[in-house]
Amino acid sequence: MKGLNRTKCRIVRRLFLFFATLSVIPFTVLYLVTSDHLYRFRAYNYGTGTNGSRHQLQYHAVHHPPPAVVHHQQQQQHRKHQQTHDQQLQHKAIKNSTSNQYQIDMDYMKHRMEDRVTRLNDKCNEYRLNEPKQNYKPKAWEYLINREYHLVWCNVFKAASTSWMYNFNLLAGYTPEFLKKTKDVPLQLARQRYPRPSVDALREAINGSISFVIVRHPFERLVSAYKDKIQYALPNSHHHKLGIRIIQKYRKLAKGQQPWNTQKYPTFSEFVNYLLDEVRHPHTEIDMHWIPVTYFCTPCFFHYDVIAKFETLEEDQNYLIAEAQLGHMIKPQWRNAGKGAHTNDLVVKLFTELDDEQVRGLYEYYKYDFELFGYSTEEYFSGRGR
């Protein structure tokens, strides 16, 4: 009898365990699913952060430049199709999620620079600009040579010149604190540490250095110079006085109208008339802020390792800094961004004020800059006779 009771007890216990196990299974499944979702959620938060910034998880995001100006989207789109191959593929720099710096595809960037240097050399040969002439000889005057860091730069004004003059002053030993508070002109500070070289000294320095130049679309550079040096000229400065002379010579006044009762600075059309008149006189010294790069740096006489472009500067200068191993000394940054409307927008507006003869005259003056560095004129001649 006792044996029978023990058997019944075992059966009851087994049935109890069986049904208990069945009842636990749904809760186990629910727990596993919930834990998996929770883990994924935490991993996502760990990677993105509460404000959307990424921390430890190294996701790479392709960097895209700002979109074209909305009011002139069609012109900008056409211009994109006219760009050289390297500009069409300019989205190769990858933003580092933790340091907010750029990781550079060095092979791609090296190919980009080789393409630009090849074009420069080909066009120099085509136009025979690598042959000294009476009015076109090698000019080393505007180059800066940093012998400690083996860096050579031709300082083209209105093409990131303020930013890179600051960088070269840092490399010369000036501290950021000093550069921030000093009233001295940055170029004058630089020339105290970087004497103007001779042609032979420059060529010797280039052989053991990374040499570079930063260029910009000639018409955009011209507009930037007009805006900065003419429209917003400092009172009583050289360019302010120049503006007064331009108004006196080129402004057409109604009968009885006085110049001081009209616009206080030269219009872009008046400025262009002044520039084209200056160009027609071969012995006139053109202002360094709008002289063509071809004449300012004489690039056909010197070798460049890097030809950076203002339009792709963020990528190009990161490559340059990495190639020169100067990341511990200088950081890419923009200085003197300018005043008023964005330059691209302003260029389109101001060029509508010019007649066909003025635009053709400007093109002829900047022709070699367009050719040597691969810039297009199409949108500026659209609807005009050439």
What does this structure look like?
By secondary structure, this protein is α/β, with parallel strands linked by helices. The chain has one domain. Helices cover 52% and strands 6% of the residues. The chain contains 16 helices and 7 strands. The strands form 2 sheets. A 4-stranded mixed β-sheet has the order 4-5-6-7, sandwiched between helices. A 3-stranded antiparallel β-sheet has the order 1-2-3, with no helix packed on it. β2 and β3 form a beta hairpin. α5 packs parallel to α7 and α10 crosses α11. It is elongated and about 125 Å long. It starts with a helix and ends in a 5-residue tail after the last helix.
Task: Give the helices and strands as they follow along the chain.
Answer: HEHHEEHEEHHHHEHHHHEHHHH
Structure classification:
alpha/beta
Largest sheet: 4 strands, mixed
Q: How far from one another are the termini?
A: 120 Å
- The averaged pLDDT comes out at 80
How many H/I helical runs? 16
Q: Could you say which overall geometry the principal axes of the C-alpha atoms support?
A: elongated
Number of strands: 7
| C-alpha-based Rg, rounded | 32 Å
Portion in helices: 40-55%
Report strand %: 5-15%
What order do the strands of the largest sheet run in, or round the barrel if closed? 4-5-6-7
- Low-pLDDT runs of 5+ residues are 32-76, 81-101
Compute the number of structural domains: 1
Subcellular location: Golgi apparatus membrane
Keywords: Carbohydrate metabolism, Glycoprotein, Golgi apparatus, Membrane, Signal-anchor, Transferase, Transmembrane, Transmembrane helix
GO molecular function: sulfotransferase activity
EC number: 2.8.2.-
